[in-house]
Write a structure and sequence with these properties.
Helix content is 21%, strand content 32%. Strands 1, 2, 3, 4 and 5 form a five-stranded antiparallel sheet that branches. The protein has one helix and five strands, in the order βββββα.
Length: 96
């Protein structure tokens, strides 16, 4: 596609935070397209943690991102109601 452009969010638009185990999470969006075709994707980048060898990147449609957000909120609510201390959840005793 000649003339295709990609736009990613400025640093101020992306949301970045670090999990308790040290992974950097970066949430943003990506716009691809030109005058005849376009697509917008929500991006989720999960960085490496100390002692880990893996990192991941996902690009989701807006509908998929909303579904993921709902699933995360449902699980967060269930975790809060479980009565377990937050530090005891997740692999290796961490949350992430």
């Amino acid at each position: 596609m000649e003339g295709q452009q990609a736009r990613t969010p400025d640093a101020a638009e992306a949301q970045v935070f670090r999990t308790i185990c040290g992974r950097q999470m970066r949430i943003g969006y990506l716009f691809l397209g030109d005058a005849q075709w376009s697509a917008t994707r929500v991006t989720v980048a999960v960085g490496q943690c100390p002692g880990c060898r893996d990192a991941a990147m996902a690009t989701l449609t807006v509908a998929e991102a909303r579904r993921l957000a709902g699933a995360l909120l449902t699980q967060a609510t269930a975790a809060e109601r479980s009565g377990r201390p937050a530090a005891a959840t997740g692999p290796r005793g961490g949350a992430g």
